[in-house]
Amino acid sequence: MSALRLLSSAARRAPSTLAQQRRGYAEVADKISLSLVLPHQAIFTSKDVVQVNVAAATGDMGILANHVPSIEALRPGMIEVIESGNASKKWFASGGFATVHPGNKLTINVIEAAPLESFSSEAVRANLQEALKVAAGNGSEEDKMEARIEADVYEALQHALGSK
User: Fold this and answer.
1) Residue 147 and residue 124: Cα distance in Å, rounded?
2) Tens place of pLDDT per residue across the chain (164 aa)
3) What does the buried/exposed string (b/e) look like for 29-64 if buried means 16 or more CB atoms within 10 Å of the residue's CB?
4) 138 in helix, strand or coil?
5) Nearest to 159 by CA among 74, 88, 55, 62
6) Which residues contact residue 110 at a Cβ distance below 8 angstroms, ignoring those fewer than 6 apart?
7) Ranges of H-type helices in 14-51
8) d(CA 46, CA 31)
9) How far is residue 164 from each of residues 13, 67, 158, 159, measured CA to CA in Å?
C-alpha cells in the first residue's frame, strides 16, 4: 500500500476531533492575558484585558481572546490596551514583537515605550522638521539614514497623537 493511501486510510479511521477544535468568534466576555514588557520594566504582567491593538509590520491589528497563535513584528506606533468597561490605555512603542500564545495569552516585547499622553504635539512636530532637514541635507549617508529613521518614528508618533 502506498504511503498516501495508508495515510488517508488512517485518517478515515481516526476519530474526528476537527469539529471540537474549530475556531469561532471571540465572545465579548472573554479576556486575554497580556504581558507588556520592556528590557528594564514590566508594564503589564499577566493582566486580563478585553482587547489589544498593535501597530504590526503588516498593518494595524486588534487582538481579542481566542486569537489564532501568531508572532508579529511591531513597527513604531501605538499600543492600545482596552480593559473591562472599555477603559483604554495607550503607549507609543518604538518597535518589538507581539506573540499570541494558545490559551488566550499575549506577550508584547518592546525596546522602548511611553504613555502617549507624555508626548507634546509641538515638540514632535519640531523634531520631525529637524530630522527631515538633516535627511535632505548635505551630511554623510549615515547621518541621512539615521535622520530618515528618526523622521519615520516621529511621523508614526505624530499619527498616534492625532488619533488620541
Assistant:
1) 14
2) 455 454 455 555 655 544 455 555 544 448 999 999 999 999 999 999 999 999 999 999 999 999 999 999 999 999 999 998 888 999 999 899 999 999 999 999 999 999 988 888 899 899 899 989 888 888 888 988 988 888 888 888 888 888 65
3) eebbbbbbbbeeeebbeebebbbbbbbbeeeebebb
4) coil
5) 55
6) 36, 37, 38, 74, 79, 93, 94, 95, 96
7) 18-21
8) 11
9) 56, 25, 10, 9
Type of residue found at 108: I
The full length of the chain comes to: 164
Grid-cell match 514590566, residue found: 42
Cα angle: 90, vertex 123, 109; to 5 degrees: 35
Which helix (H) or strand (E) segment holds residue 6: the answer is helix 3-13
The grid coordinates listed for 149 are 529613521
